[in-house]
Amino acid sequence: MEKEELRTIYHRTERLTVVVLLLALPAFGMVYLYQQSGSFSQTLPVLPDWVQYLLLGGGVLVLAAQYLLFHQKIKLSFQQESLLEKVGLYASATRQRFMLLLVVSIVSTAGLFWSGSPGFVFLFTVTLVFFSLGKPTPDRMVRLMKLKKEDRELLTEISRPA
């Protein structure tokens, strides 16, 4: 029974991470390519510099916050006894992390669209790094939660397609 619950939690979390990435990447890619094509006729109001800096600073703060919040939640898993509770905490932390990363990707996409500033490209690039580092894998879960060998084998087993 626990094995099936773990499998459900793991696959649901993995699915969410892929969906969030599939929302963020094409949107930014379209705006980026549109900006780089040179045929962009800006009929939108131009963002003032202070708004650009506010968006960039807010994006960086959210990136820092997602990192800190994720690791705080992971530390809570050290106090849990069962693997199910630990994986549940990890899944919750990952969901929160990816929702915050989605917010940053939306901010960077909108900022690039309205301003064309390369700072937003850099912000999105850093966000992609966190997307990559945050995708749940059995090895990453074992390392972050400092699990035992038998738990590692169980996580490896549940990560495989059913």
Primary descriptors:
single chain, 162 residues, mainly alpha, A middle domain of Talin 1, 6 helices, elongated
Protein model, in words:
- The protein is mostly helical and 162 residues long.
- The chain has a single domain (2-38, 49-159), classed as Up-down Bundle (A middle domain of Talin 1), CATH 1.20.1420.
- It contains 6 helices and no strands.
- Helix 1 (2-36) crosses helix 6, helix 2 runs antiparallel to helix 3 and helix 3 runs antiparallel to helix 4 (118-134).
- It is elongated and about 60 Å long.
- The model has no long low-confidence stretch (mean pLDDT 92).
The overall pLDDT average reads 92
Order of helices and strands: HHHHHH
Helix proportion of residues, in percent?
over 70%
The CATH class is Mainly Alpha
Overall shape: it is elongated
Please report the total strand number as a whole number: 0
